Amino acid sequence: MGSNSPLQFNTIPYPLWRRKLPFGLTNLLRPLAQRYLAADADHNPPATPQALAAYMQRWGLLTTDPQSAVEALSQTASTIEITQPDTIKPPATIESNHLRLPAQWEPMETVLIAWPSLYPALWNQHAQMAEAIAPVATVTILVTESAWEQAVRLHLTHRGKIDLSRVRFLQLPTDDIWVRDYGPVVAHDSDGEQVAVKMIFDPLPNYPQQQDNAMAQRWAAHEELPVRQLDLHLEGGNIWSDGQGTFIVANQIFHSNPGLTETTLREKLSAVFDVQQLIVTPRLEGEETGHVDLLVKLADAQTVLISRPAGPNEANLRRAIEIFRSSTNAAGQPYRVFELPNPPRYRNWGFFAVWRSYTNALTVNGRVLVPVFGIPTDAEALAVYREAMPTFEIIPIDCSASANGGGAVHCLTKEVAAPRRKS
């Protein structure tokens, strides 16, 4: 079927066989997944170079013959760093409430990507993201087991589009690939030093997410950074900051934190961050995450990009545009609003409603990685970005595969702001 068909049958980048289902269905799904999918490969990788090469060949990830792949996998020296939660001293916990959350257009030292070892259909997309980031920032690739480093390195080498000296491999167990939501939010203290902010991550009660919820603190321990706890159920995809005291969230946060009001939300955020202005937008109805990054892209302190009002969420999108046209940022500056095309929704396998959002883009050190989906509106979306962000290099990333899991570039990456020390 074409990419604009209202019914499609694409890979679902969620481990459905790990979901807690009634009537023993979980036990039924697991053996089927192990037979026909890459189920459990993240935590149980192929044990030998031969098995790893066979895995890559089975899923179309080899561009060479299997024997050459075995030789390459056997001979490549490992450079992976391994987190050691039982031996690394836990990071200090600080109580400062003057943390500044940098804007995404500020200097970034690295971008974290959780490699989709479970989802072969996403390997090329993740490779595209790494290749676009590496010229301007270090790429930190997270793998659940060290064996995956060799496979990822071979895959990137065969593509021939990245300087691997700009790639850092880190073994850090996670439950899934959506690192934006559970990864560390790196802020600055009053001296411009890095502080990792740990929020509560548990939005999907039917999935195992303990390792994802522990990821930020475990990463901070490995990096020897202090940690500040934020007492909110809040995913990284539902918060934008302009680095000057403006915070933007979607009202999904009130569903994630029953009993929370806008007043108590401001109080909780202000207990950690320097919050001068709080803007709350509607969420997209029928879109599972409810995150603001699928609705709005903050391009600079005075510029937002929003999906054009259309389709089932026309009223919510129109309301979001009205909010920004009538609001100012913390510095009292009005917003410029650019409207992006709004691709039609489709259903994957007849059950899963898929929203494709051009706002789900990553800004990193002068570049903007913009999701595209192989559909006619891609060209218009890229033109809008070039108009709204003329000093940035606009790089399209094919996100037609990850859209079936509810996200694109922004959801699959987590930038780490560089220290901003006083001279």
Give an overview in words.
- With 423 residues, this protein is α/β, with parallel strands linked by helices.
- It contains 11 helices and 20 strands.
- The strands form 6 sheets. It has a 5-stranded mixed β-sheet with strand order 2-5-4-3-20. Strands 1-15-16 form a 3-stranded mixed β-sheet, with no helix packed on it. The protein has a 3-stranded mixed β-sheet with strand order 6-7-8, with helices on one face.
- The longest helix has 14 residues, at 210-223.
- The chain is globular, with a radius of gyration of 21 Å.
- The mean pLDDT is 92.
Low-confidence stretches: none
Count of separate DSSP helical elements = 11
Adjacency order of strands in the biggest sheet: 2-5-4-3-20
Task: Tell me the strand percentage band.
Answer: 15-25%
User: What is the 3D form?
Assistant: globular
* Residues in helix, %: 25-40%
**Name given to the CATH homologous superfamily of the largest domain:** L-arginine/glycine Amidinotransferase, Chain A
Q: Whole-number radius of gyration? A: 21 Å
Per CATH, the class of the largest domain reads Alpha Beta
User: What is the CA–CA distance across the termini?
Assistant: 58 Å
| Overall average residue pLDDT | 92
Largest sheet: 5 strands, mixed
Q: Kindly identify the CATH topology of the largest domain.
A: L-arginine/glycine Amidinotransferase, Chain A
- Tally of structural domains: 2
What is the CATH architecture term of the largest domain? 5-stranded Propeller
Judged by helices, strands and strand pairing, the structural class is alpha/beta
Q: What's the number of extended β-strand segments?
A: 20
